[in-house]
Amino acid sequence: MSIQFRNREQNQLTKWIGGRKKYTLLYKASRDGCTHTAFRNNCNNKGPTVTVLYNTDNFMYGGYTSASWKSIGNYQNDGSAFLFRFYQNGKWKPVRMPIVNAQNAIYDHPSYGPTFGGYDLHTFSNTVNFDGTSFPLNGSASFGVSYTMNGENYKSIANGHLRVKDIRVYLVEDLAGDTPLDGSWRKTAKWNLKLLNELKEKVEKYKPLKDLKVPQARILLVGQVGAGKSSFFNTINSIFRGYITSQACSGNAEHSLTTMYRMYQIRNGQSGTPMNFRLHDTRGLEADQGIDSHEMNYLLDGNLPDRHQFNPSVPISGDTAGFVVSPNLSDKIHCVIFVLDGSIVDVMPEKVIERMKNLQLRMNQRGIPQVVLLTKIDKVCEATATDISRVFYSPVIQESVDRVSQIMGLPRSHILPIKNYESETELNANVNILALLTLQQVLHFANDYMYNYLDQIEEGKVRQLNIRE
Question: Which of 91, 126, 360, 439 is deepest in the core (most CB within 10 A)?
Fold first, then answer.
């Protein structure tokens, strides 16, 4: 288990505390030193905090107090304090252990690290040196003195020892003062049936830049296995069909369910007329498998035909069946969508990130805009799972967007959280609205690519290639 305190953990903690919170790192033993001086200098008189311990056996636990550390040399009263566990031997097993003796919520001695209760959890005193693998804390654990343990004990919380990889203390603040007046971090029109119908109409009437005579914008879907590439097509398709569809093969599997390159049409549900964009689905990215840079070049340049079957043992060449020798602008990809599973962003394999970065180089060389679909947001934020229209009010989703923006090197406006249809059997207006807002933004980016291409034509840097030579 990697050392982290992000979406899942913060969402759980916020649920326990209540309200809408943000978390700012104040103290980190591996960075600041495991000393009472470093802890006190960074954490005294700051306000409510949460202390998180990461032990060597992949247990993650700690305590929350709404009282501010002050080095008073005595107990502090806090009826809101609690102890908690997030992970047990690397497995997600959250449990909250509330205070029962509020007068002894924390012991605030100036030479101690964070200490909860009547020594329920005393992390360390004075200085603890790193021994090369961990901090062997010199504190103690007598769980159950001032906190109700709910059937837990020293063994189940910390595996019976205080050897930790790190200790981190976060400031816990109310988010209200840092957000717009309506609480949203990304502005949209009011979500209602009127907005839904307006979005559907705009997408139905969408046409690529007419000066280039491109009949359809071409959108390439790239992403992790199981992240929801095919599900995104099915979601958009369902909206315009008027019922849940599963035209593209989707589901959970160890390896990609998509082995064939597909150029999916989205058709108007009433007339059956194809719309002026296509979603291109390809096989999923894995640490050691999936689409590679060589294949990506041919995809972006429009050389591969619909239903091309990927075969790692047979490299793509001009002899490949259906190979488009002289693709024109209409064949090329105009925007790329990276599809990432929002619930596992923090534990994405480094090899997968590296593969995506390599693919991005190919796209950047061609000036192709990129966006990220952050899927499964209902698993990232409980409030969003209950009401998808709260997506742009969720600090947990906002942090995920910020995190992915950093990983992918893309502006935050290019990171688009979404909920695909997966287990549903009926359409949901809010799911439709979010999907259409996402699609509308993607089509805008596709048009940006075409405007840039038109500029190059007018500047004489490229020839108009709408007709194959």
Answer: 439
434 and 318, same structural domain? yes
Does residue 467 sit within a domain? Answer: no
Q: At a CB cut-off of 8 Å and minimum separation 6, what does 119 contact?
A: 107, 140, 141, 142, 145
Cβ contacts of 361 within 8 Å, gap of 6 or more: 293
One-letter amino acid at 26 equals: L
Length of the chain: 469
Strands annotated E in 357-399: 370-375
Residue 166's domain comprises 7-177
List residues bridging with 164 in a β-sheet.
55, 135
The pairing of strands 370-375 and 335-341 is parallel
Is residue 340 classed as helix, strand or coil in its secondary structure? strand
CA quadruple 374, 311, 219, 420: dihedral sign: negative
pTM, two decimal places: 0.62
Backbone angles phi, psi at 399, to 5 degrees: -65, -35
Of 146, 177, 208, the residue that ends a domain is 177
Whether residue 151 is found in the same domain as residue 19: yes
Separation of alpha carbons 263 and 278, rounded Å: 6
